[in-house]
Protein backbone atom coordinates (compact mmCIF):
# COMPACT_ATOMS: atom_id res chain seq x y z
CA UNK A 1 0.00 0.00 0.00
CA UNK A 2 1.40 3.36 -1.02
CA UNK A 3 0.89 6.06 1.62
CA UNK A 4 1.26 8.83 -0.96
CA UNK A 5 -1.80 7.57 -2.87
CA UNK A 6 -3.83 7.39 0.34
CA UNK A 7 -2.78 10.93 1.30
CA UNK A 8 -3.79 12.24 -2.13
CA UNK A 9 -7.11 10.40 -1.89
CA UNK A 10 -7.86 11.89 1.54
CA UNK A 11 -6.86 15.35 0.27
CA UNK A 12 -9.18 14.96 -2.74
CA UNK A 13 -12.10 13.93 -0.53
CA UNK A 14 -11.48 16.86 1.82
CA UNK A 15 -11.29 19.24 -1.15
CA UNK A 16 -14.64 18.02 -2.51
CA UNK A 17 -16.29 18.32 0.92
CA UNK A 18 -14.86 21.83 1.32
CA UNK A 19 -16.06 22.79 -2.16
CA UNK A 20 -19.62 21.60 -1.42
CA UNK A 21 -19.53 23.47 1.90
CA UNK A 22 -18.48 26.71 0.22
CA UNK A 23 -21.18 26.37 -2.47
CA UNK A 24 -23.80 25.66 0.23
CA UNK A 25 -22.79 28.69 2.33
CA UNK A 26 -22.73 30.98 -0.73
CA UNK A 27 -26.24 29.79 -1.65
CA UNK A 28 -27.59 30.47 1.85
CA UNK A 29 -25.92 33.89 1.94
CA UNK A 30 -27.35 34.80 -1.47
CA UNK A 31 -30.87 33.74 -0.51
CA UNK A 32 -30.88 35.48 2.88
CA UNK A 33 -29.43 38.71 1.46
CA UNK A 34 -32.01 38.85 -1.32
CA UNK A 35 -34.67 41.57 -0.79
CA UNK A 36 -37.91 40.02 0.42
CA UNK A 37 -36.40 36.87 1.91
CA UNK A 38 -37.72 35.41 5.15
CA UNK A 39 -36.23 32.54 7.14
CA UNK A 40 -39.05 30.08 7.90
CA UNK A 41 -39.94 26.56 8.88
CA UNK A 42 -42.28 25.05 6.31
CA UNK A 43 -44.21 21.91 5.61
CA UNK A 44 -46.89 20.60 3.35
CA UNK A 45 -49.79 18.92 5.07
CA UNK A 46 -48.82 15.60 6.70
CA UNK A 47 -45.07 16.13 6.15
CA UNK A 48 -42.39 16.95 8.72
CA UNK A 49 -41.21 20.53 9.29
CA UNK A 50 -38.20 21.70 7.25
CA UNK A 51 -36.05 24.79 7.56
CA UNK A 52 -36.29 27.02 4.55
CA UNK A 53 -36.19 30.46 3.06
CA UNK A 54 -39.29 32.11 1.62
CA UNK A 55 -38.61 34.69 -1.06
CA UNK A 56 -41.30 37.22 -1.87
CA UNK A 57 -41.00 38.09 -5.54
CA UNK A 58 -43.32 40.28 -7.63
CA UNK A 59 -46.06 37.69 -8.17
CA UNK A 60 -44.87 34.44 -6.59
CA UNK A 61 -43.82 33.07 -3.23
CA UNK A 62 -40.71 30.96 -3.79
CA UNK A 63 -39.70 28.45 -1.12
CA UNK A 64 -36.14 27.16 -0.86
CA UNK A 65 -35.23 24.39 1.60
CA UNK A 66 -31.97 25.09 3.40
CA UNK A 67 -30.79 21.49 3.07
CA UNK A 68 -30.24 21.67 -0.66
CA UNK A 69 -27.63 22.78 -3.15
CA UNK A 70 -30.22 23.76 -5.76
CA UNK A 71 -30.30 27.45 -6.70
CA UNK A 72 -33.93 27.23 -7.86
CA UNK A 73 -37.03 27.14 -5.65
CA UNK A 74 -38.39 23.76 -4.62
CA UNK A 75 -41.95 25.05 -4.27
CA UNK A 76 -43.63 28.04 -5.82
CA UNK A 77 -47.06 29.61 -5.38
CA UNK A 78 -48.76 32.45 -7.25
CA UNK A 79 -49.87 35.31 -5.00
CA UNK A 80 -53.30 35.72 -6.63
CA UNK A 81 -54.21 32.09 -5.83
CA UNK A 82 -53.33 32.27 -2.11
CA UNK A 83 -55.57 32.45 0.89
CA UNK A 84 -54.36 32.12 4.45
CA UNK A 85 -55.39 31.10 7.95
CA UNK A 86 -53.51 32.67 10.82
CA UNK A 87 -53.02 30.51 13.91
CA UNK A 88 -52.39 31.82 17.42
CA UNK A 89 -48.82 32.73 18.31
CA UNK A 90 -47.03 30.38 20.66
CA UNK A 91 -43.65 31.09 22.32
CA UNK A 92 -42.87 33.87 19.84
CA UNK A 93 -43.55 31.66 16.81
CA UNK A 94 -46.39 32.49 14.47
CA UNK A 95 -47.85 29.85 12.14
CA UNK A 96 -49.84 30.65 9.03
CA UNK A 97 -51.50 28.12 6.73
CA UNK A 98 -51.37 29.07 3.06
CA UNK A 99 -54.36 27.67 1.21
CA UNK A 100 -53.61 27.03 -2.44
CA UNK A 101 -55.91 25.56 -5.11
CA UNK A 102 -54.38 22.09 -4.82
CA UNK A 103 -52.72 21.94 -1.40
CA UNK A 104 -51.96 23.62 1.94
CA UNK A 105 -48.63 24.73 3.35
CA UNK A 106 -47.84 25.61 6.94
CA UNK A 107 -45.22 28.31 7.39
CA UNK A 108 -43.80 29.24 10.80
CA UNK A 109 -41.56 32.16 11.71
CA UNK A 110 -41.38 35.15 14.03
CA UNK A 111 -44.40 37.41 14.25
CA UNK A 112 -42.71 40.22 12.31
CA UNK A 113 -41.72 38.01 9.40
CA UNK A 114 -45.18 36.44 9.19
CA UNK A 115 -46.67 39.96 9.22
CA UNK A 116 -44.44 40.84 6.27
CA UNK A 117 -45.62 37.71 4.43
CA UNK A 118 -49.29 38.51 5.06
CA UNK A 119 -48.80 42.14 3.99
CA UNK A 120 -47.19 40.91 0.79
CA UNK A 121 -50.17 38.59 0.12
CA UNK A 122 -52.66 41.41 0.79
CA UNK A 123 -50.79 43.91 -1.40
CA UNK A 124 -51.60 42.03 -4.61
CA UNK A 125 -53.48 43.82 -7.33
CA UNK A 126 -57.24 43.78 -6.81
CA UNK A 127 -59.26 41.55 -9.10
CA UNK A 128 -61.71 44.29 -10.05
CA UNK A 129 -61.94 48.04 -9.79
CA UNK A 130 -63.88 49.19 -6.75
CA UNK A 131 -67.17 50.90 -7.52
CA UNK A 132 -69.20 53.37 -5.52
CA UNK A 133 -72.80 52.39 -4.88
What is the count of helical runs? 2
Radius of gyration: 20 Å
Count of individual beta strands: 7
Largest sheet: 7 strands, antiparallel
Spans of at least 5 consecutive residues with low confidence: 128-133
Overall pLDDT, averaged?
85
Percent of residues in helices comes to: 25-40%
Strand order of the largest sheet: 4-3-2-1-7-6-5
Principal-axis shape: elongated
Order of helices and strands: HEEEEEEEH
**Fraction of residues in β-strands:** 25-35%
How far is the N terminus from the C terminus? Answer: 90 Å
SS-derived structural category: alpha+beta
Please tag this protein with its features:
133 residues, alpha+beta, disordered C terminus, seven-stranded antiparallel beta sheet
Summarize the helices and strands and which ones pair or pack.
Elements: H1 3-33, E1 37-44, E2 50-56, E3 60-65, E4 75-78, E5 83-86, E6 93-99, E7 104-110, H2 111-122
Antiparallel strand pairs: 1-2, 1-7, 2-3, 3-4, 5-6, 6-7
